[in-house]
């Protein structure tokens, strides 16, 4: 679920598949050992079991698994051999779920990809299913699960005003909701202290400035404590354990975001707790039981942690010792913080789930996520970097077909794969799209072009009003780098991406008509004017920010027309395949419709796949299969 945060506004079009180790490809006497062709369905079918969590008391775990090809929720008592199926959805996957207490599971689901998520609840024995937010055209979001108040959660609803979310305290036993504050129209986030009291709000002021509002108690009025331009700011994460100061992430007066402690009474930073010279800090965690800050998180080419707390570091190291050769993530922890759900992953494996008992230092395997994936047949995702034409360092990843490495990879067919967002980034790990393409014999280039997050404010701001311009040049420069390295066959290069990556695909074909042999646009923007006019209503308060970051439809109309692919189909020579969800709330189906129409009017080859039961990306398994089958056939036609 996309969450818009006024601090950096980095997620506007976030789109992508889960991606996450790497070893050198197999070579015997310098002979290339190629991978066997793996069925397409193995890459894109639903996992056997996934999304494991643990109950607060540590007696049960939950997971999602396919039921009639849709991902549903199951609960199993630890030690038992059978599970209880809690949901029986057949039209669409459950979007996400959590444990508010030991007796219930809460989950979110939308209809046909419209992203108007409704909140549901069900007891862990399958009884008392309830829809808490059964309101037509209303989107529900989880603001705070109030882990210390087991019968209540805080949710946000845009019921009163489609553009903004009001916070409600929801009684999970009775279903009663009480509004805690009426959003005046500019609040984009709410934060509660450790006692469940609403104390912080983040607001947009004058369209492009953001303020943090604070109150000492719920009886007081909110007061503005700091206002900044949206390009910099302080993002509150949680209160200190005495509920007085705030721990957050800040880039005030800095290029890179760091962890700081902030005094809300004076509106000033008390001290910096941790920062990295090269990368933004993306988040910070804490222990509810021990009341200590545990770790800060950031991404280099892999996920990184900085530990504040020796106990947390020891637990992490003990877990790693049980699971050598894999990266790990903690997906669940009980209230006593001694039982963990652990997920492994690598660039070649979706990994497995384990239960770890820290008191006994005991690790038990639960399940392989996708046991049909043989990691020995997968390819390594190698970190790379190159320079843009104006001197920026662009970091990325290169995945080569099995048997190839940076020394013997020569004249390969290539798929250039710019990420969505655009204000997000590619990371290291298993990506089924990338592995599928590599298995079909293509080298795949991913790049974190300017604007990609995690590299500091200057790198992010370098993307402002650069859609289709310098941002596109970064992609072109990466493609040219592959050619110069001798890795790419310059006559067999395709470009493929989703959301902003789909837009970059279209602009790549427009700006570099002789560089790419084919393009695949997945839910991409084609017309900057119509795109701006069809954004979801809850993005409209941030429209001025988008105008500054992307372009103003009136003041920058000439520039926006120049970077709208639909107006330049006369420059496109390469064949194009477009895929779109009919219910997409972020990139309206008209973006693809008008591009297809313009291409056909020019007599340029275009293949079009529309799914009436999908939104921004295909969630239903059979639709994924259709898309990737079509893409495989299309790429094979033009790259082989």
Structure description:
The model is unreliable at 1-30 (pLDDT under 50). 17% of the residues lie in helices and 34% in strands. It has 640 residues and is an alpha+beta fold. A hairpin with a 5-residue loop joins strand 13 and strand 14. Among the domains are: 309-377; 382-639, Rossmann fold (3-Layer(aba) Sandwich). An eight-stranded mixed sheet has the order 30-31-33-32-34-35-36-37, sandwiched between helices. A four-stranded antiparallel sheet has the order 3-4-5-6, with no helix packed on it. It starts with 26 loop residues before the first strand and ends with a helix.
What's the short version?
The protein has 640 residues and is α+β, with helices and mostly antiparallel strands. The chain contains eleven helices and 37 strands.
Helix coverage percent of residues?
Answer: 10-25%
Overall geometry comes to: globular
What multimeric state do the chains show?
Answer: single chain
Q: Major sheet, described briefly?
A: 8 strands, mixed
The named CATH superfamily of the domain at 382-639: Alpha/Beta hydrolase fold, catalytic domain
- Overall number of strands: 37
- Helix-and-strand structural type: alpha+beta
Distance between the termini: 37 Å
Output mean pLDDT. Answer: 92
The CATH topology of the domain at 382-639 is given as Rossmann fold
CATH architectural type of the domain at 382-639: 3-Layer(aba) Sandwich
What is the name of the CATH class of the domain at 382-639?
Alpha Beta
Q: Count of DSSP helices? A: 11
**Radius of gyration from the CA trace?**
24 Å
Biggest sheet strand order reads: 30-31-33-32-34-35-36-37
Range of strand content: 25-35%
Low-confidence sequence ranges: 1-30
């Amino acid at each position: 679920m996309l969450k818009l945060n006024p601090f950096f506004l980095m997620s506007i079009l976030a789109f992508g598949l889960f991606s996450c180790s790497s070893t050198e490809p197999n070579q015997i006497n310098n002979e290339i050992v190629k991978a066997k062709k793996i069925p397409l369905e193995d890459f894109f079918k639903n996992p056997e079991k996934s999304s494991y969590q643990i109950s607060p008391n540590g007696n049960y775990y939950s997971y999602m698994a396919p039921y009639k090809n849709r991902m549903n929720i199951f609960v199993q008592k630890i030690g038992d051999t059978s599970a209880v199926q809690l949901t029986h959805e057949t039209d669409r996957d459950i979007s996400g779920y959590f444990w508010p207490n030991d007796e219930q599971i809460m989950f979110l689901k939308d209809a046909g990809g419209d992203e108007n998520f409704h909140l549901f609840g069900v007891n862990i024995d399958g009884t008392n299913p309830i829809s808490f937010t059964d309101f037509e055209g209303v989107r529900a979001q989880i603001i705070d699960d109030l882990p210390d108040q087991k019968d209540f959660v805080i949710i946000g609803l845009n019921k009163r005003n489609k553009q903004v979310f009001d916070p409600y305290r929801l009684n999970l036993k009775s279903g009663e909701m009480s509004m805690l504050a009426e959003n005046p129209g500019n609040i984009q986030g709410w934060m509660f202290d450790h006692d469940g009291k609403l104390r912080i709000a983040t607001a947009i002021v004058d369209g492009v400035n953001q303020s943090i509002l604070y109150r000492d108690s719920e009886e007081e009025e909110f007061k503005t404590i700091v206002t900044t331009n949206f390009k910099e700011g302080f993002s509150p994460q949680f209160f200190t354990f005495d509920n007085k100061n705030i721990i957050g992430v800040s880039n005030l007066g800095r290029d890179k975001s760091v962890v700081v402690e902030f005094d809300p009474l004076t509106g000033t930073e008390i001290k910096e707790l941790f920062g990295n010279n090269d990368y933004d800090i993306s988040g910070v965690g804490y222990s509810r039981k021990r009341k200590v800050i545990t770790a800060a998180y950031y991404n280099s080419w892999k996920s990184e942690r900085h530990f504040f707390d020796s106990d947390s570091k020891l637990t992490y190291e003990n877990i790693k010792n049980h699971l050598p050769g894999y990266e790990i993530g903690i997906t669940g922890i009980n209230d006593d913080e001694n039982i963990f759900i652990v997920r492994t992953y690598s660039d070649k494996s979706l990994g497995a789930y384990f239960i770890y008992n820290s008191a006994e230092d005991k690790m038990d395997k639960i399940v392989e996520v996708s046991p049909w994936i043989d990691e020995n047949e997968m390819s390594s995702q190698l970190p790379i970097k190159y320079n843009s034409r104006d001197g920026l360092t662009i970091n990325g990843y290169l995945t080569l077909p099995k048997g190839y490495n940076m020394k013997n990879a020569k004249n390969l067919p290539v798929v250039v794969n710019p990420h969505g967002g655009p204000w997000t980034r590619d990371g290291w790990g298993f990506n089924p799209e990338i592995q599928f393409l590599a298995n079909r014999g293509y080298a795949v280039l991913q790049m974190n072009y300017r604007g990609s997050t995690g590299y500091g404010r200057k790198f992010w701001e370098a993307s402002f009003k650069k859609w289709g311009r310098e941002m596109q040049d970064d992609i072109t420069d990466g493609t040219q780098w592959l050619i110069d390295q001798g890795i790419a066959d310059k006559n067999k290069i395709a470009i493929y991406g989703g959301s902003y990556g789909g837009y970059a695909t279209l602009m790549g074909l427009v700006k570099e008509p002789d560089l790419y042999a084919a393009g695949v646009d997945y839910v991409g923007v084609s017309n900057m004017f119509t795109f701006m006019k069809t954004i979801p209503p809850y993005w409209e308060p941030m429209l001025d920010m988008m105008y500054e970051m992307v372009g103003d439809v009136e003041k920058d109309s000439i520039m926006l027309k120049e970077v709208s692919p639909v107006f330049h189909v006369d420059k496109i020579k390469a064949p194009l395949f477009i895929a779109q969800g009919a219910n997409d709330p972020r990139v309206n189906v008209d973006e693809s419709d008008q591009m297809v129409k313009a291409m056909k009017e020019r007599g340029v080859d275009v293949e079009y796949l529309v799914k009436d039961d999908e939104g921004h990306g295909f969630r239903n398994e059979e639709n994924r299969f259709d898309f990737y089958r079509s893409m495989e056939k299309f790429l094979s036609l033009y790259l082989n």
